[in-house]
Specification:
Blueprint lengths: L1 H5 L3 H7 L2 H14 L6 H30 L4 H11 L1 H20 L5 H4 L25 H11 L2 H5 L3
Helix pairs in contact: 2-4, 3-4, 4-5, 4-6
């Protein structure tokens, strides 16, 4: 799609060459902060890659327009960096502020957004089957479960 837009192979490659470093940086940040690579992290990485691609497209578009007006490649990309900085920062800030509720993780369904080790459980659910160290159910518990499942006549030998 980018090849059709720019009628060239080099400009789409220039734009797409920024994406691996953004993805690698995001994965390193996840490892550095010892976070889980879960659905929310992947949403953040996809958001980051989209922002980086958008910024690269804005820079290349402006630089190509300057080249068509007769400026050199170096001057046009320098001017693109100077004049496109504010729009790039504004759209990046808007995207980051839009993702802020997801990052903060408060409200309904926030347990999905918090990493597992940071989740607080307001209560502890009782264990349905208490387990001993050997991994077996306790004998009184097994007897009560068996009594509930097997009718009294069948366990007494009557049919």
């Amino acid at each position: 799609m980018l090849g059709i837009l720019y009628e060239s192979y080099i400009h789409p490659i220039t734009i797409l060459s920024t994406l691996p470093s953004a993805g690698t940086g995001a994965l390193l940040a996840v490892l550095l902060f010892r976070m889980d690579l879960d659905v929310i992290s992947l949403i953040g990485i996809i958001l980051l890659i989209g922002i980086v691609k958008k910024n690269a497209i804005m820079m290349i578009d402006f630089a190509l327009e300057q080249e068509r007006q007769g400026k050199s490649s170096e001057d046009s990309i320098h001017e693109a960096a100077l004049l496109r900085f504010r729009p790039i920062m504004m759209t990046t800030a808007a995207a980051l502020l839009g993702a802020l509720p997801l990052a903060i993780g408060h409200g309904m369904g926030s347990e999905l957004r918090r990493p597992r080790r940071n989740r607080r459980r307001p209560y502890r659910e009782p264990d349905a089957y208490p387990v001993h160290h050997a991994g077996c159910l306790s004998v009184p518990r097994q007897a009560s479960i068996l009594a509930a499942v097997v009718p009294a006549e069948a366990s007494a030998g009557g049919a």
